[in-house]
Amino acid sequence: MAILAADGSSIVKEQTVKACLSQSLFVNETDGYVEANDDVYQLMQDLIKRYRHTIGHLLNVQIKILFKKKTSKKNGKKVLGRASVFPEKDMHFHPYTFLIELDKTYWQDCPDKREPLLFHELCHCWIGEDNKASIRPHDLEEFSEVVRFYGAWESDVKHFGEQLQLGLEFKEEAE
Ligand SMILES: [Zn+2]
């Protein structure tokens, strides 16, 4: 199966990718993963184009997507997706900059969550002004109890609250 890049331009043979991924620091057990099909890459392209003001920098960036067969947990919570940067030395073996791993079961069971999950992981994939790839951290890390008792006590929380409100209004309008 051929693999389309985010911009739909490059085609890489699966065999090469698998061989390369096994050399990567991030994926050392290729058996635990399955290739994402063309539909997933198509969705990624659509999202990058639709949200180009946020993730337009990914238009010409090669992103590899794999499904993780076994659900993993972190701090007792299911890991639904994960984005990482391939080590720089890998560029000698394959064209990918980022790797997105998605939980296979979640993807299959929750079709309506696919878009936000993939968009979330794409938001992690950052290219700096120096053209260096990195993983962008989440905008907000907070406890629900603090927000409950102190509201938007800090600018990060305030911004997040405003965006949530806009999102809820947008959803209401759409329904
Ligand atoms: Zn995240």
Walkthrough of the structure:
The chain is of the alpha+beta class. The chain has two domains: 27 residues, no CATH class; 106 residues, Zincin-like, CATH 3.30.2010. It has seven helices and ten strands. A four-stranded mixed β-sheet has the order 3-4-8-7. Strand 1 and strand 2 form a beta hairpin. The protein is globular and about 50 Å long. The chain starts with a strand and ends with a helix. The N terminus is likely disordered. It binds zinc ion. The site of zinc ion has 3 residues, from helix 5.
Total domains, how many?
2
CATH topology of the largest domain: the name is Zincin-like
Structural class: alpha+beta
Fraction of residues in β-strands: 15-25%
Total strands: the figure is 10
* Poorly predicted parts: 1-5, 8-15, 25-29
The biggest sheet, with number of strands, parallel, antiparallel or mixed sense and barrel status, is: 4 strands, mixed
Short note summarizing the structure:
The chain has 7 helices and 10 strands.
SSE inventory with pairings:
Blueprint: E1 2-4, E2 11-13, H1 14-21, E3 33-35, H2 38-50, H3 52-55, E4 63-68, E5 73-74, E6 77-78, E7 81-85, E8 98-103, H4 104-109, H5 114-124, E9 125-127, E10 133-135, H6 144-150, H7 155-174
Parallel strand pairs: 4-8
Antiparallel strand pairs: 1-2, 3-4, 5-6, 7-8, 9-10
Helix pairs in contact: 2-5
Bound molecules: zinc ion.
The site of zinc ion (ZN) has 3 residues, from helix 5.
